[in-house]
Amino acid sequence: MTRILLRNGVIHTGLASAEPTTAMAVEDGRIVWTGTDPDGFTSPDEVVDLGGRLVTPAFVDSHVHVVETGEQILGLDLGGAPSREVVLDMVAAYVTDLGPDDLVLAQGWDETLWPDPTLPTATELDRASGGRKVYLNRIDGHSAVVSSALMAQVPGITGLPGWTAEGRVEREALRALLPLLADLTPAGHAERGARAALQAMAALGIGAFHENAGPDIGPESDLVAVQTQAADAGLHGTYYWGAHLGFGDLDRLDDVAGLAGDLSADGSMGSRSAALTFDYADLAGHRGHAYLDPERMAEHIVGCTRRGLQAGFHCIGDQAIDNIAQAFRLAETALGAETLRTRRHRLEHCELPSPAAAETFTHLGVIASMQPMFDGLWGGPDRMYAARLGERWQQMNPFRTLLDAGVRIAFGSDSPVTPLDPWAAVHAAVHHRTPGQGITPAEAFAAHTVGGWYAAGIDDAGTLAVGQRATYAVWDRTTFPDLTTPDVADVTTACLQTVVDGRTVFEKEGVW
Ligand SMILES: [Zn+2]
Fold first, then answer.
1. What distance in angstroms lies between residue 63's CA and the mean position of ligand 1's atoms?
2. Is the pLDDT of residue 18 over 80?
3. Which residue intervals define the domain Amidohydrolase in the entry (predicted)?
C-alpha cells in the first residue's frame, strides 16, 4: 500500500467546522490524515507538492445520461443553434460526410431561444438531409423532430398519441422510435460515447455520477456500456433504471441502485408536457400530461422498498409532484415512515413542488435531485418558464424553500440537457433567478458533492476527512472561489487532477 502525502496546498474539506488544512495523506484509497504540519504524517512513500493549489472533494453529478452526453460531444450538437434555419443548415453540412443510409442523430435544439419558434418540418429535414433518416432530439429529450424516411420505418406511428404530420413527435410516438434508433446506431457507438463523456467529466473534476438510464431513454445495452466504460475509466457510477415495476429487468442488469431516475411521472415544461394543476399560460385549456397515477406509483415504491432498491421518478409539474406525494403517503400506510426513510427514495428535477408535497418528502426522507442550470437557462421574467407559467415562473426550482423545509438536495446537470459544468451550476444555485431562492455557497457546493453521495446511499465520501474515500480534485487556483461574485467566469476553474478512491482518473499533462 502506497502512502501518499499531499502538502503545501489549500484543502477545502467541505466540513462545516473546517480548520485550515494544507496537507492530506492518502492510503489504500482513503484519507488517513489531514493537517497543516506535513511532518505530522510520518514516512510517506510519495510526497506531492501542491504548489499552493486548491483541493476540494470531487463533484458528483447526480443526474446524467452518459451515452447521450457522448453523442453530443462526438456528434451533431444543436445546442447553440439560434434559429430553425441554422438547424437545417447544420444538418445539411453534417450529412456531407455520411453515407446515404446513415442515421442523422442530433440533439440540443431549443426553439424557445429562437426569434421564431416554428420547428423544422419533416419535409424540410428531408430536403436538408438528402432524404436520410433524421432524429433531432429536443434539448429536454421529451420531444423530437424526425424526417419522413425515419417515420416510414415505424409502421403505425401515425396513429400514436404524440405524433404530428409535420414530423414533431412526443410521448408514445417518441417511445415507438427508440428501438429503431437503437437498431440503426452502429456497433460500438454507445461505448465510444460513454468513453468520451466519462473523460469529459473527469477533466471537469467530476469523480462520481448517477446514470439515469431506462427503457424510455435507451436500450439496456447502453447502461451496460456505461458500467463497463466507467469501471475502465475509474469514475464512480451509481446506476438507475427508470422502469415502472421493472423488477424482472434486474435479472439481466447488474449493480442497479434503484428503479428510479427518469421514470417519468410527467413530461417537461419546454415541451408543455409537465403536468400542472393550472392551465399553461401560453396554451389555454392545456395542463400537460401525468403519465402515472398515485396508486401505480405507490405500488412501485412499495415493491422497490421491499427489495432494498431506491424508487424514484422524473417529475416537473406540481400535479405530477402532488401525485407522487400522494403515492408516498400510500406507501407509508403500507410500510411505515421509518422503512421508507432508510431507503432514501429520490425524485429527479422536482421543479414545482407544493408546500404540502415538500412536507411529505421531508417526513419520508425523499431526496430532490435538482439541476441549477435549469433555472440558469430558463428562469427569470423573460425566459421559457415565464412563457409557459406566467408569474408562476418564480415558483420553479425553489432551492431555498426546499432546504428550509428540510428536504435533502443533490445537484446534477441532466447532461446533455445542460452542460457538464459543476462550478457554473453551484454559481447558478447561489444566484437563483427568483429573488430569495438562492442558497449559500456552502449549501450549493455540498449539494453537488456530499449531497450526491448521500442520494446514492453512500456516507463515506464527499468531504475530505479522515476515513473518507480519497475522491478529490485539484484546481488551477489558490483559493476556494467566491461564489457570491456575479460573474460566473470568476468562478469557473480549470481542473488539474481528479482522483477517485485514490486512483487518478484525470491529470492535466505536465501538472506535477
Ligand atoms: Zn434525465
1. 6
2. no
3. 46-506
